[in-house]
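Hi D.,

Good news: the full-assembly prediction came through. Inputs first.
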Amino acid sequence: MVSSGADARGMIKRRAGVKLWLSAGWLAVVVLAALLAPWIAPKDPLMQDLFLGRMPPAWVAGAEPGYWLGTDSLGRDVFSRILHGARIALTVAVVAGGITCLVGATLGLMAGFLRGWVDVVISRLIDIWMAFPPVLFSILLVAVLGPGLHSIIIAIVVIDWTRFARVVRAEAMGQGAMDYVASAQVAGRGRLSTMLTEILPNVLPTIIVLLTLEMGIAVIVEAILSFVNLSISTDAPTWGGMIAEGRTSVHQAWWVLVFPLITLFLTVLAFSQLGEGLKDRFDPVLR
Amino acid sequence: MSFLQVNGLKARLKGVGHPLLRDVSLSVAAGEVRGLVGESGAGKSMIGKAVLGILPRAVEISGGEILLDGADLQRLSARERRVRIGASCALIPQDPLTALNPSRRIAPQITDRLVDILGWNRARALSRARDLLAEVHIPDPDRVLRAYPHELSGGMRQRILIASAFAAEPKLIVADEPTTALDVTVQKQVLKLIAEMQARHGTALLFVTHDLGVVSKVCDRLTVLYGGMVVEDTDVRSFFAGPAHAYSRALLAATPKYTDPDASLTPVPEAVIRAVQAEVAAADRRVAHG
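Then the structure:
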Protein backbone atom coordinates (compact mmCIF):
# COMPACT_ATOMS: atom_id res chain seq x y z
CA MET A 1 0.00 0.00 0.00
CA VAL A 2 1.28 3.41 -0.86
CA SER A 3 0.72 6.05 1.77
CA SER A 4 0.88 9.70 0.85
CA GLY A 5 2.96 12.27 2.71
CA ALA A 6 -0.12 13.71 4.37
CA ASP A 7 -1.08 10.28 5.75
CA ALA A 8 2.38 9.67 7.14
CA ARG A 9 2.34 13.09 8.73
CA GLY A 10 -1.04 12.34 10.27
CA MET A 11 0.28 9.05 11.69
CA ILE A 12 3.20 10.76 13.37
CA LYS A 13 0.89 13.39 14.75
CA ARG A 14 -1.61 10.88 16.14
CA ARG A 15 1.09 8.74 17.74
CA ALA A 16 2.72 11.84 19.16
CA GLY A 17 -0.67 12.78 20.54
CA VAL A 18 -1.15 9.50 22.45
CA LYS A 19 2.39 9.60 23.82
CA LEU A 20 1.97 13.22 24.79
CA TRP A 21 -1.36 12.74 26.57
CA LEU A 22 -0.37 9.57 28.44
CA SER A 23 2.85 11.05 29.77
CA ALA A 24 1.29 14.45 30.49
CA GLY A 25 -1.56 12.65 32.28
CA TRP A 26 0.78 10.72 34.57
CA LEU A 27 2.84 13.82 35.29
CA ALA A 28 -0.34 15.75 36.09
CA VAL A 29 -1.20 13.06 38.65
CA VAL A 30 2.29 13.35 40.18
CA VAL A 31 2.06 17.16 40.25
CA LEU A 32 -1.35 17.01 41.96
CA ALA A 33 -0.02 14.48 44.44
CA ALA A 34 2.91 16.76 45.22
CA LEU A 35 0.77 19.88 45.59
CA LEU A 36 -1.97 18.26 47.67
CA ALA A 37 0.14 15.76 49.63
CA PRO A 38 -0.51 17.30 53.09
CA TRP A 39 -4.27 17.17 52.51
CA ILE A 40 -4.76 13.92 50.61
CA ALA A 41 -2.19 11.70 52.28
CA PRO A 42 -4.14 9.37 54.58
CA LYS A 43 -1.38 9.29 57.22
CA ASP A 44 1.48 11.41 58.48
CA PRO A 45 4.47 10.24 56.37
CA LEU A 46 6.82 10.54 59.34
CA MET A 47 4.59 8.86 61.92
CA GLN A 48 6.08 5.62 63.15
CA ASP A 49 4.06 2.81 64.70
CA LEU A 50 6.24 -0.12 65.60
CA PHE A 51 3.20 -2.35 66.21
CA LEU A 52 2.22 -1.87 62.55
CA GLY A 53 5.63 -2.62 60.95
CA ARG A 54 5.72 -4.31 57.51
CA MET A 55 1.96 -4.51 57.01
CA PRO A 56 1.19 -5.73 53.43
CA PRO A 57 -0.85 -3.71 50.87
CA ALA A 58 -4.65 -3.62 51.16
CA TRP A 59 -5.40 -6.51 48.78
CA VAL A 60 -3.05 -8.99 50.48
CA ALA A 61 -4.22 -11.12 53.42
CA GLY A 62 -3.25 -9.66 56.79
CA ALA A 63 -3.44 -6.03 55.65
CA GLU A 64 -4.22 -3.26 58.12
CA PRO A 65 -7.18 -1.11 57.00
CA GLY A 66 -6.21 2.46 56.03
CA TYR A 67 -2.69 1.51 54.84
CA TRP A 68 -3.40 0.99 51.10
CA LEU A 69 0.12 0.18 50.00
CA GLY A 70 1.26 -1.30 53.31
CA THR A 71 3.81 0.01 55.79
CA ASP A 72 7.58 -0.09 56.07
CA SER A 73 9.63 -1.63 58.88
CA LEU A 74 8.98 1.36 61.13
CA GLY A 75 5.25 1.24 60.50
CA ARG A 76 5.13 4.32 58.28
CA ASP A 77 2.48 4.45 55.54
CA VAL A 78 4.08 3.70 52.12
CA PHE A 79 1.36 5.49 50.14
CA SER A 80 1.63 8.69 52.17
CA ARG A 81 5.40 8.62 51.88
CA ILE A 82 5.19 8.23 48.08
CA LEU A 83 2.84 11.23 47.91
CA HIS A 84 5.17 13.36 50.00
CA GLY A 85 8.19 12.02 48.10
CA ALA A 86 6.66 13.47 44.92
CA ARG A 87 7.19 16.97 46.34
CA ILE A 88 10.93 16.51 46.61
CA ALA A 89 11.18 14.61 43.32
CA LEU A 90 9.32 17.31 41.39
CA THR A 91 11.13 20.19 43.06
CA VAL A 92 14.43 18.62 42.07
CA ALA A 93 13.16 17.86 38.55
CA VAL A 94 11.89 21.36 37.85
CA VAL A 95 14.49 23.48 39.63
CA ALA A 96 17.58 21.39 38.88
CA GLY A 97 16.39 20.55 35.34
CA GLY A 98 15.53 24.19 34.64
CA ILE A 99 18.79 25.65 35.90
CA THR A 100 20.84 22.96 34.16
CA CYS A 101 19.01 23.71 30.92
CA LEU A 102 19.51 27.44 31.24
CA VAL A 103 23.22 27.19 31.99
CA GLY A 104 24.01 24.42 29.50
CA ALA A 105 21.92 25.72 26.62
CA THR A 106 23.24 29.27 26.99
CA LEU A 107 26.85 28.13 26.96
CA GLY A 108 26.19 25.72 24.08
CA LEU A 109 24.44 28.39 22.03
CA MET A 110 27.27 30.85 22.58
CA ALA A 111 29.96 28.31 21.73
CA GLY A 112 28.16 27.08 18.62
CA PHE A 113 27.20 30.44 17.19
CA LEU A 114 29.88 32.89 18.31
CA ARG A 115 32.69 30.35 17.73
CA GLY A 116 36.22 31.76 18.09
CA TRP A 117 37.77 31.89 21.54
CA VAL A 118 34.37 31.60 23.26
CA ASP A 119 33.95 28.21 21.61
CA VAL A 120 37.50 27.15 22.47
CA VAL A 121 37.05 27.95 26.16
CA ILE A 122 33.61 26.35 26.48
CA SER A 123 34.51 23.26 24.46
CA ARG A 124 37.65 22.59 26.48
CA LEU A 125 35.62 23.03 29.65
CA ILE A 126 33.12 20.45 28.40
CA ASP A 127 35.91 18.00 27.54
CA ILE A 128 37.47 18.34 30.99
CA TRP A 129 34.10 18.11 32.70
CA MET A 130 33.09 14.96 30.91
CA ALA A 131 36.21 13.13 32.01
CA PHE A 132 34.84 12.99 35.60
CA PRO A 133 32.68 9.94 36.45
CA PRO A 134 29.31 11.62 37.09
CA VAL A 135 27.95 9.54 39.98
CA LEU A 136 31.20 9.69 41.97
CA PHE A 137 31.44 13.39 41.18
CA SER A 138 27.94 14.05 42.50
CA ILE A 139 28.53 12.01 45.67
CA LEU A 140 31.73 13.93 46.25
CA LEU A 141 29.99 17.25 45.65
CA VAL A 142 27.12 16.54 48.04
CA ALA A 143 29.61 15.23 50.62
CA VAL A 144 31.45 18.56 50.38
CA LEU A 145 28.34 20.78 50.26
CA GLY A 146 26.59 18.88 53.00
CA PRO A 147 23.24 17.10 52.58
CA GLY A 148 20.13 19.07 51.71
CA LEU A 149 17.89 19.93 48.78
CA HIS A 150 20.07 22.83 47.61
CA SER A 151 23.21 20.72 47.39
CA ILE A 152 21.43 18.06 45.33
CA ILE A 153 20.28 20.75 42.92
CA ILE A 154 23.75 22.28 42.72
CA ALA A 155 25.27 18.86 42.15
CA ILE A 156 22.88 18.10 39.28
CA VAL A 157 23.51 21.46 37.59
CA VAL A 158 27.26 21.17 37.96
CA ILE A 159 27.35 17.67 36.52
CA ASP A 160 24.74 17.79 33.78
CA TRP A 161 25.15 21.17 32.08
CA THR A 162 27.54 19.55 29.57
CA ARG A 163 24.69 17.37 28.32
CA PHE A 164 22.91 20.51 27.07
CA ALA A 165 26.00 22.42 26.06
CA ARG A 166 27.34 19.71 23.76
CA VAL A 167 24.13 19.05 21.86
CA VAL A 168 23.03 22.68 21.61
CA ARG A 169 26.50 23.72 20.43
CA ALA A 170 26.40 21.20 17.58
CA GLU A 171 22.90 22.30 16.56
CA ALA A 172 23.77 25.98 16.74
CA MET A 173 26.82 25.41 14.55
CA GLY A 174 24.65 23.76 11.92
CA GLN A 175 22.10 26.56 12.02
CA GLY A 176 24.84 29.22 11.93
CA ALA A 177 25.94 28.02 8.49
CA MET A 178 22.48 28.61 7.00
CA ASP A 179 21.83 31.40 4.51
CA TYR A 180 19.17 33.02 6.65
CA VAL A 181 21.79 33.77 9.25
CA ALA A 182 23.93 35.42 6.56
CA SER A 183 20.89 37.42 5.39
CA ALA A 184 20.19 38.59 8.94
CA GLN A 185 23.78 39.73 9.28
CA VAL A 186 23.74 41.57 5.97
CA ALA A 187 20.61 43.32 7.21
CA GLY A 188 22.65 44.70 10.09
CA ARG A 189 21.42 42.45 12.90
CA GLY A 190 23.83 42.20 15.81
CA ARG A 191 25.36 38.88 16.85
CA LEU A 192 23.26 38.59 20.00
CA SER A 193 20.03 39.49 18.26
CA THR A 194 20.76 37.05 15.42
CA MET A 195 21.44 34.34 17.97
CA LEU A 196 18.13 34.93 19.70
CA THR A 197 15.85 35.42 16.69
CA GLU A 198 17.41 33.13 14.08
CA ILE A 199 19.25 30.38 15.95
CA LEU A 200 17.34 29.89 19.21
CA PRO A 201 13.91 29.12 17.67
CA ASN A 202 15.52 26.40 15.59
CA VAL A 203 17.29 24.70 18.48
CA LEU A 204 14.33 25.11 20.84
CA PRO A 205 12.73 21.73 19.99
CA THR A 206 16.01 20.04 20.88
CA ILE A 207 16.32 22.04 24.08
CA ILE A 208 12.80 21.04 25.12
CA VAL A 209 13.52 17.35 24.58
CA LEU A 210 16.77 17.65 26.53
CA LEU A 211 15.01 19.52 29.31
CA THR A 212 12.37 16.87 29.85
CA LEU A 213 15.01 14.13 29.68
CA GLU A 214 17.04 16.10 32.19
CA MET A 215 14.05 16.35 34.52
CA GLY A 216 13.83 12.55 34.49
CA ILE A 217 17.56 12.27 35.06
CA ALA A 218 17.35 14.73 37.95
CA VAL A 219 14.72 12.53 39.60
CA ILE A 220 17.04 9.53 39.18
CA VAL A 221 20.08 11.39 40.50
CA GLU A 222 18.09 12.47 43.54
CA ALA A 223 17.09 8.82 44.03
CA ILE A 224 20.69 7.67 43.70
CA LEU A 225 21.85 10.22 46.26
CA SER A 226 19.03 9.23 48.61
CA PHE A 227 20.01 5.61 48.04
CA VAL A 228 23.54 6.28 49.26
CA ASN A 229 22.09 8.34 52.09
CA LEU A 230 23.36 11.70 50.84
CA SER A 231 20.01 13.28 50.08
CA ILE A 232 17.84 15.50 52.27
CA SER A 233 17.71 13.87 55.68
CA THR A 234 17.43 10.21 56.51
CA ASP A 235 13.80 10.15 57.56
CA ALA A 236 12.44 12.67 55.01
CA PRO A 237 10.20 10.83 52.55
CA THR A 238 12.08 10.58 49.25
CA TRP A 239 11.56 7.89 46.62
CA GLY A 240 15.24 7.03 46.57
CA GLY A 241 15.37 6.81 50.35
CA MET A 242 12.35 4.50 50.35
CA ILE A 243 13.95 2.27 47.74
CA ALA A 244 17.13 2.10 49.79
CA GLU A 245 15.16 1.15 52.90
CA GLY A 246 13.00 -1.32 51.01
CA ARG A 247 16.07 -3.07 49.63
CA THR A 248 17.10 -4.30 53.06
CA SER A 249 13.76 -5.97 53.73
CA VAL A 250 12.75 -6.98 50.19
CA HIS A 251 12.28 -10.65 51.19
CA GLN A 252 9.90 -9.88 54.03
CA ALA A 253 8.14 -6.80 52.63
CA TRP A 254 8.51 -6.41 48.83
CA TRP A 255 5.98 -3.55 48.73
CA VAL A 256 8.30 -1.13 50.50
CA LEU A 257 10.71 -1.41 47.54
CA VAL A 258 8.35 -2.02 44.64
CA PHE A 259 5.82 0.84 44.90
CA PRO A 260 8.30 3.73 45.06
CA LEU A 261 10.31 2.03 42.32
CA ILE A 262 7.27 1.84 40.00
CA THR A 263 6.41 5.47 40.73
CA LEU A 264 9.97 6.54 39.99
CA PHE A 265 10.11 4.48 36.81
CA LEU A 266 6.80 5.79 35.46
CA THR A 267 7.74 9.39 36.25
CA VAL A 268 11.12 9.23 34.53
CA LEU A 269 9.54 7.49 31.53
CA ALA A 270 6.76 10.09 31.39
CA PHE A 271 9.31 12.92 31.35
CA SER A 272 11.22 11.49 28.39
CA GLN A 273 8.04 10.67 26.45
CA LEU A 274 6.66 14.13 27.12
CA GLY A 275 9.80 15.56 25.53
CA GLU A 276 9.42 13.41 22.42
CA GLY A 277 5.75 14.34 22.11
CA LEU A 278 6.40 18.04 22.59
CA LYS A 279 9.19 18.01 20.03
CA ASP A 280 6.89 16.62 17.36
CA ARG A 281 4.35 19.26 18.27
CA PHE A 282 6.88 22.11 18.17
CA ASP A 283 8.52 21.07 14.91
CA PRO A 284 7.08 23.43 12.27
CA VAL A 285 7.58 20.87 9.51
CA LEU A 286 5.47 18.27 11.30
CA ARG A 287 2.99 20.71 12.72
CA MET B 1 32.04 57.85 -8.63
CA SER B 2 30.84 54.26 -8.53
CA PHE B 3 28.66 53.14 -5.65
CA LEU B 4 30.83 50.09 -5.07
CA GLN B 5 34.52 50.28 -5.81
CA VAL B 6 36.79 47.30 -5.09
CA ASN B 7 40.50 48.10 -5.41
CA GLY B 8 43.21 45.43 -5.42
CA LEU B 9 41.30 43.18 -3.05
CA LYS B 10 43.30 40.23 -1.74
CA ALA B 11 41.91 37.45 0.45
CA ARG B 12 43.49 34.27 1.75
CA LEU B 13 42.81 31.29 3.97
CA LYS B 14 43.70 32.11 7.53
CA GLY B 15 46.69 30.21 8.83
CA VAL B 16 47.51 28.38 5.60
CA GLY B 17 47.85 31.63 3.68
CA HIS B 18 46.50 30.10 0.47
CA PRO B 19 45.38 33.01 -1.76
CA LEU B 20 41.68 33.05 -2.72
CA LEU B 21 41.42 36.52 -4.27
CA ARG B 22 44.40 37.95 -6.11
CA ASP B 23 44.31 41.69 -6.58
CA VAL B 24 40.66 41.96 -7.63
CA SER B 25 39.42 45.37 -8.79
CA LEU B 26 35.95 46.11 -10.03
CA SER B 27 33.29 48.76 -9.76
CA VAL B 28 29.53 48.90 -9.80
CA ALA B 29 27.93 52.25 -10.62
CA ALA B 30 24.58 53.20 -9.14
CA GLY B 31 21.82 51.34 -10.95
CA GLU B 32 24.27 49.21 -12.92
CA VAL B 33 24.15 45.41 -13.20
CA ARG B 34 27.58 43.82 -13.02
CA GLY B 35 27.95 40.11 -13.77
CA LEU B 36 30.63 38.13 -12.01
CA VAL B 37 31.40 34.94 -13.88
CA GLY B 38 33.90 32.12 -13.60
CA GLU B 39 34.21 28.44 -12.84
CA SER B 40 33.57 26.96 -9.41
CA GLY B 41 36.28 28.18 -7.06
CA ALA B 42 37.13 31.23 -9.18
CA GLY B 43 36.27 33.43 -6.19
CA LYS B 44 33.10 35.01 -7.53
CA SER B 45 30.97 34.30 -4.45
CA MET B 46 33.91 35.26 -2.26
CA ILE B 47 33.85 38.80 -3.68
CA GLY B 48 30.14 39.12 -2.98
CA LYS B 49 30.63 37.88 0.56
CA ALA B 50 33.56 40.23 1.15
CA VAL B 51 31.43 43.18 0.04
CA LEU B 52 28.62 42.17 2.40
CA GLY B 53 30.94 41.44 5.31
CA ILE B 54 29.91 37.78 5.57
CA LEU B 55 33.15 36.05 4.64
CA PRO B 56 33.57 32.65 6.28
CA ARG B 57 35.60 32.67 9.47
CA ALA B 58 38.52 30.89 7.84
CA VAL B 59 39.00 33.64 5.22
CA GLU B 60 40.74 36.92 5.85
CA ILE B 61 41.18 40.01 3.71
CA SER B 62 44.90 40.58 3.35
CA GLY B 63 44.98 43.68 1.20
CA GLY B 64 43.14 46.17 -0.95
CA GLU B 65 40.03 48.13 -0.16
CA ILE B 66 36.28 47.89 -0.57
CA LEU B 67 34.73 51.34 -0.97
CA LEU B 68 31.01 51.42 -0.38
CA ASP B 69 29.65 54.83 -1.32
CA GLY B 70 33.13 56.22 -0.79
CA ALA B 71 33.77 54.71 2.66
CA ASP B 72 36.49 52.07 3.06
CA LEU B 73 34.79 49.15 4.83
CA GLN B 74 38.07 47.80 6.22
CA ARG B 75 38.65 51.00 8.13
CA LEU B 76 35.29 51.02 9.87
CA SER B 77 34.62 49.35 13.19
CA ALA B 78 32.67 46.08 13.00
CA ARG B 79 29.57 47.85 14.21
CA GLU B 80 29.79 50.78 11.80
CA ARG B 81 30.46 48.38 8.96
CA ARG B 82 27.39 46.33 9.83
CA VAL B 83 25.16 49.39 10.00
CA ARG B 84 26.50 50.81 6.74
CA ILE B 85 26.16 47.53 4.86
CA GLY B 86 22.73 46.91 6.36
CA ALA B 87 21.46 50.32 5.31
CA SER B 88 22.60 50.13 1.70
CA CYS B 89 23.04 46.47 0.70
CA ALA B 90 21.05 43.24 0.56
CA LEU B 91 21.60 39.66 -0.48
CA ILE B 92 19.64 37.34 -2.73
CA PRO B 93 21.06 33.98 -1.65
CA GLN B 94 21.66 30.92 -3.75
CA ASP B 95 19.51 28.28 -2.12
CA PRO B 96 15.95 29.38 -1.32
CA LEU B 97 15.50 26.23 0.78
CA THR B 98 17.99 27.28 3.45
CA ALA B 99 17.64 31.04 3.11
CA LEU B 100 14.44 31.37 5.09
CA ASN B 101 14.32 30.51 8.77
CA PRO B 102 12.18 27.33 8.98
CA SER B 103 10.79 28.09 12.41
CA ARG B 104 9.56 31.60 11.71
CA ARG B 105 6.63 32.74 9.63
CA ILE B 106 7.31 34.69 6.43
CA ALA B 107 5.99 38.06 7.64
CA PRO B 108 8.61 38.81 10.31
CA GLN B 109 11.38 37.59 8.04
CA ILE B 110 10.53 40.39 5.61
CA THR B 111 9.50 43.07 8.10
CA ASP B 112 12.51 42.60 10.43
CA ARG B 113 14.78 44.57 8.15
CA LEU B 114 12.25 47.36 7.64
CA VAL B 115 11.99 47.70 11.39
CA ASP B 116 15.75 47.36 11.93
CA ILE B 117 17.03 49.51 9.08
CA LEU B 118 14.31 52.04 8.43
CA GLY B 119 12.91 52.17 11.97
CA TRP B 120 9.34 51.60 10.80
CA ASN B 121 6.65 50.24 13.09
CA ARG B 122 5.33 46.69 12.57
CA ALA B 123 2.04 47.69 10.99
CA ARG B 124 3.66 49.90 8.35
CA ALA B 125 6.30 47.24 7.65
CA LEU B 126 3.63 44.59 7.28
CA SER B 127 1.64 46.59 4.75
CA ARG B 128 4.87 47.23 2.81
CA ALA B 129 5.63 43.48 2.89
CA ARG B 130 2.17 42.80 1.46
CA ASP B 131 2.80 45.27 -1.40
CA LEU B 132 6.21 43.74 -2.07
CA LEU B 133 4.79 40.23 -2.35
CA ALA B 134 2.20 41.52 -4.79
CA GLU B 135 5.02 43.19 -6.71
CA VAL B 136 6.83 39.85 -7.15
CA HIS B 137 3.57 38.36 -8.43
CA ILE B 138 2.69 36.22 -5.42
CA PRO B 139 -1.03 35.50 -5.35
CA ASP B 140 -2.76 35.82 -1.97
CA PRO B 141 0.04 37.65 -0.12
CA ASP B 142 -1.81 37.52 3.21
CA ARG B 143 -1.82 33.73 3.25
CA VAL B 144 1.86 33.61 2.30
CA LEU B 145 2.81 36.09 5.03
CA ARG B 146 1.25 33.81 7.62
CA ALA B 147 2.86 30.66 6.17
CA TYR B 148 5.99 28.85 7.28
CA PRO B 149 8.70 28.40 4.64
CA HIS B 150 8.16 24.63 4.30
CA GLU B 151 4.61 25.25 3.15
CA LEU B 152 5.84 27.07 0.03
CA SER B 153 7.53 25.89 -3.14
CA GLY B 154 11.15 26.68 -4.01
CA GLY B 155 10.17 29.20 -6.69
CA MET B 156 7.78 30.91 -4.29
CA ARG B 157 10.48 31.13 -1.63
CA GLN B 158 12.94 32.65 -4.12
CA ARG B 159 10.31 35.28 -4.98
CA ILE B 160 9.94 36.04 -1.29
CA LEU B 161 13.71 36.40 -0.96
CA ILE B 162 13.78 38.77 -3.90
CA ALA B 163 10.95 40.84 -2.42
CA SER B 164 12.75 40.87 0.89
CA ALA B 165 16.06 41.96 -0.69
CA PHE B 166 14.37 44.96 -2.32
CA ALA B 167 12.28 45.72 0.78
CA ALA B 168 14.43 48.44 2.38
CA GLU B 169 15.30 49.98 -1.02
CA PRO B 170 19.03 49.12 -0.88
CA LYS B 171 21.49 50.80 -3.26
CA LEU B 172 23.23 47.51 -4.05
CA ILE B 173 22.05 43.91 -4.09
CA VAL B 174 24.42 40.98 -4.30
CA ALA B 175 22.67 38.10 -6.07
CA ASP B 176 24.69 34.96 -5.35
CA GLU B 177 23.74 32.47 -8.07
CA PRO B 178 20.06 33.18 -7.41
CA THR B 179 18.81 30.76 -10.05
CA THR B 180 21.22 27.86 -9.64
CA ALA B 181 19.14 25.88 -7.15
CA LEU B 182 15.92 26.23 -9.14
CA ASP B 183 14.69 24.08 -12.00
CA VAL B 184 14.99 25.44 -15.50
CA THR B 185 11.41 26.59 -16.03
CA VAL B 186 11.37 28.50 -12.74
CA GLN B 187 14.86 29.90 -13.42
CA LYS B 188 13.60 31.86 -16.35
CA GLN B 189 10.73 33.44 -14.42
CA VAL B 190 12.95 34.32 -11.48
CA LEU B 191 15.53 35.88 -13.76
CA LYS B 192 12.86 37.96 -15.45
CA LEU B 193 11.58 38.99 -12.05
CA ILE B 194 15.00 40.10 -10.83
CA ALA B 195 15.56 42.12 -14.00
CA GLU B 196 12.10 43.67 -13.69
CA MET B 197 12.58 44.60 -10.02
CA GLN B 198 16.06 45.95 -10.69
CA ALA B 199 14.79 48.18 -13.49
CA ARG B 200 11.85 49.45 -11.44
CA HIS B 201 13.86 50.20 -8.30
CA GLY B 202 17.03 51.31 -10.07
CA THR B 203 19.14 49.19 -7.76
CA ALA B 204 22.75 48.32 -8.57
CA LEU B 205 23.24 44.57 -8.82
CA LEU B 206 26.32 42.41 -8.40
CA PHE B 207 25.20 39.24 -10.13
CA VAL B 208 27.29 36.20 -9.32
CA THR B 209 26.74 33.37 -11.77
CA HIS B 210 28.47 30.72 -13.84
CA ASP B 211 25.87 30.94 -16.56
CA LEU B 212 26.79 33.26 -19.43
CA GLY B 213 23.26 32.92 -20.79
CA VAL B 214 22.02 34.62 -17.61
CA VAL B 215 24.64 37.37 -18.01
CA SER B 216 23.52 38.15 -21.54
CA LYS B 217 19.94 38.65 -20.29
CA VAL B 218 20.40 40.83 -17.21
CA CYS B 219 23.88 42.38 -17.02
CA ASP B 220 25.33 45.69 -18.29
CA ARG B 221 28.97 44.91 -17.56
CA LEU B 222 30.79 41.79 -16.54
CA THR B 223 33.93 40.58 -14.85
CA VAL B 224 35.43 37.21 -15.76
CA LEU B 225 37.42 35.56 -12.97
CA TYR B 226 39.85 32.70 -12.91
CA GLY B 227 41.61 31.50 -9.76
CA GLY B 228 40.67 34.64 -7.86
CA MET B 229 42.12 36.89 -10.56
CA VAL B 230 40.28 39.22 -12.92
CA VAL B 231 40.74 37.90 -16.46
CA GLU B 232 38.54 40.38 -18.23
CA ASP B 233 36.40 43.38 -17.32
CA THR B 234 34.20 44.62 -20.13
CA ASP B 235 30.70 45.57 -21.12
CA VAL B 236 28.31 42.80 -22.05
CA ARG B 237 27.75 43.89 -25.65
CA SER B 238 31.42 43.81 -26.59
CA PHE B 239 31.98 40.61 -24.61
CA PHE B 240 29.41 38.72 -26.65
CA ALA B 241 30.67 40.34 -29.82
CA GLY B 242 34.11 38.94 -29.13
CA PRO B 243 35.91 38.57 -25.80
CA ALA B 244 39.41 40.01 -25.57
CA HIS B 245 40.99 37.29 -23.44
CA ALA B 246 41.61 33.74 -24.74
CA TYR B 247 40.10 32.22 -21.58
CA SER B 248 36.92 34.31 -21.92
CA ARG B 249 36.64 33.24 -25.55
CA ALA B 250 36.95 29.57 -24.54
CA LEU B 251 34.41 30.04 -21.74
CA LEU B 252 31.95 31.61 -24.16
CA ALA B 253 32.51 28.81 -26.66
CA ALA B 254 31.86 26.26 -23.92
CA THR B 255 28.36 27.61 -23.20
CA PRO B 256 25.82 24.93 -24.15
CA LYS B 257 23.55 25.92 -27.05
CA TYR B 258 19.93 25.38 -26.10
CA THR B 259 18.94 25.67 -29.75
CA ASP B 260 20.81 22.45 -30.56
CA PRO B 261 20.39 20.00 -27.67
CA ASP B 262 22.18 17.18 -29.52
CA ALA B 263 25.43 19.08 -30.02
CA SER B 264 28.26 17.78 -27.87
CA LEU B 265 29.60 20.05 -25.11
CA THR B 266 32.75 22.02 -25.85
CA PRO B 267 35.20 21.96 -22.96
CA VAL B 268 37.60 24.82 -22.31
CA PRO B 269 40.78 23.62 -24.12
CA GLU B 270 43.61 22.38 -21.93
CA ALA B 271 46.07 24.82 -23.49
CA VAL B 272 43.87 27.79 -22.57
CA ILE B 273 43.63 26.60 -18.95
CA ARG B 274 47.41 26.14 -18.77
CA ALA B 275 47.93 29.63 -20.16
CA VAL B 276 45.58 31.28 -17.66
CA GLN B 277 47.09 29.30 -14.79
CA ALA B 278 50.51 30.53 -15.85
CA GLU B 279 49.13 34.08 -15.70
CA VAL B 280 47.89 33.48 -12.15
CA ALA B 281 51.28 32.05 -11.15
CA ALA B 282 53.06 35.03 -12.70
CA ALA B 283 50.82 37.41 -10.75
CA ASP B 284 51.68 35.52 -7.53
CA ARG B 285 55.40 35.79 -8.32
CA ARG B 286 55.09 39.52 -8.84
CA VAL B 287 53.48 39.77 -5.38
CA ALA B 288 56.14 37.55 -3.81
CA HIS B 289 58.98 39.66 -5.24
CA GLY B 290 57.50 42.84 -3.91
